[in-house]
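We give the entry.
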Amino acid sequence: MSNARRWKGSEDSTSAPHKPRSAVVLGIGNTLMQDEGVGVHAVKALVRRYELDLSVRVVDGGTSCMELLPTLEGVDLLIVVDAVRMGQPPASVHRLEGDQVPTFFKTKLSPHQVGLSDLLATLAFLGSTPERIVLIGVQPVSLSLGMELSPEVKAQLEEMVRLVVSELDESGFPSKLRV
C-alpha cells in the first residue's frame, strides 16, 4: 500500500484549494454506568493496540456533546463507538452507516445520545456534516452503576476495535498493530 495520502477533491484540479483528508474516531459513553461506557473503553483500546494514520484523531468524548462541534466540523469520516440499544441479543455488535446514524440517536439509550443527535443536526445546519458517518456499537448487558464493563461486553471490545480499524483502512486511513 502506498504511503501517499489521498486528498479531498484531488480529481478536480479546478476546485478550491485541497485540504487533507481527516477522520475522527469518537468514543462516547458514561464510564460510571458499566456497559454505557464501552465507547470510551474501545477508543482507549484502539490507541493502545494500533498506530494510526496521522490524519486520524481519536477522541474520548465521554458524555460531551456540543463542545465537540469544532472537533467534528468538516471531517471526512466520523466513526462513533458507543453502546446501542437496538432490541438485539445482549453483547451483540452492530454497524450503522449514513442516514441510519442520526435516526438511531433520536431513540435514547442515555442522555449523551440526545446531545449527539443535536450535534449532528448542528453540523448539518452549518454545512459541515462529515462526509461519512459510521456507528460501531454493542448492545449493553448492564447499565448499572459500576466502572467495569460486563464480562460479555468486555469480550466484544476486540471485535469493536477490529471493526473501527477496518473502517479506517478501507477509507484510506491505514493503521498498524503495535508490537
Observations:
- The helical segments are 38-49, 69-72, 100-104, 111-125, 151-154, 157-170.
- Residues 23-177 form a domain with the Rossmann fold fold (CATH 3.40.50.1450).
- Confidence is low (pLDDT under 50) at residues 1-16.
- Residues 111-125 form the longest helix (15 residues).
